[in-house]
């Protein structure tokens, strides 16, 4: 008898799902839904085509990338960039401006060949930024097809991603997407490796995940990839140690491509560190290889972290940000009165969009966390989201621990670590949708009812907190 492939891991694993439901394959109906969601998303942004959220993507990133495009002259990436102080090595810009991302390279090359005027290039850049996010959302759909039992759950995840506040975060700071760009594919590969770890071909999934992780580390500041990979590895080892050891035992001889990729990535990042440490424009300063880049935790202010007040935007319309300046002033004054002076516990106004995933997504994520099956799956994703938020939250003080990890003493963007928590919440909401689509009527009603009640309580709490902040504004 032919040997049947083992595609489903043991029950209770953090990557496991109940046996895949093959009774309903994707059909034309699903693709029509995908097309409808995409058309609506395009229409929304086309209606606001002339509007820009003038921040990082336009104030800092666009001028540099446009200058790169002009320097390429339709011939290729230059080795030296700029004219200030004799220029700068291009290698210094790779992880700050995502010069290795294939879509970014394509946009730079097309712009360098078309030679558009600056005003036209702005809108080409806007198309590029939203294209990046669309490809990321498509990756979330593919990942959903791997994770979930019902095809419509993946369609939902695609829609939830497109209309999440993360899209608006990308519209003003495109690094929000470049930090996450390869993440859905990495998750899909790791889940496939876990589920099919007893199959001879499974090592390809792990090798692919490592390759994509290396690309992600080179695309954007590598600390983000290191944090997410490290946290995921710790949770996987804690919740599915036997599966981890089994997979490594069966495939360690075939993981040499992953080892080679890791070695080359480490060499590249070490070279980049050397360049950053030793390159000094003219003779204005001398900087040691590492010490000159090191930060001081006392110099970090509120804008580098997530603030608890941002959670209000997870439950209430983002219009609450309109009076943000006066709310921040009132809360800061109150904190000063109780002996906590000099604190502004609000995020930078445009960054508050990151917290918004939608009430529907919160309800569905709650359904997932309350469902009776797959306890370790729920614990794994729940802890990943929670720890990502706590690492970003200034008041948790976890950044003081992370700061002392190797090379993290030159990292300051702790707020953006919560991006991984947002993706985890979206994934959990997809699991919640999958639960409702594949459960019996009684269980569906019970989980849905409990999730609605809990979400209503949290929304009421957010409204009370906002009302209290308004009272402080009037003081």
- State the major sheet: 2 strands, antiparallel
Topology order in helix (H) and strand (E) letters: HHEEHHHHHHHHHHHHHHHH
Mean of pLDDT: 84
Q: In angstroms, what is the radius of gyration? A: 23 Å
The residue fraction in helices comes out at 55-70%
Task: List its salient traits.
475 residues, mainly alpha, two-stranded antiparallel ribbon, 18 helices, globular
How would you sum up this structure, described in words?
With 475 residues, the chain is mainly alpha-helical. It contains 18 helices and two strands. A hairpin with a 6-residue loop joins strand 1 and strand 2. The N terminus is likely disordered.
Secondary structure elements and their pairing?
Elements: H1 28-47, H2 56-72, E1 80-81, E2 88-89, H3 102-114, H4 118-147, H5 151-162, H6 165-172, H7 175-178, H8 183-195, H9 203-219, H10 222-239, H11 241-251, H12 256-278, H13 324-337, H14 359-370, H15 375-392, H16 398-403, H17 418-438, H18 441-474
Explain briefly what this protein structure is.
The protein has 18 helices and 2 strands. The protein is mainly alpha-helical.
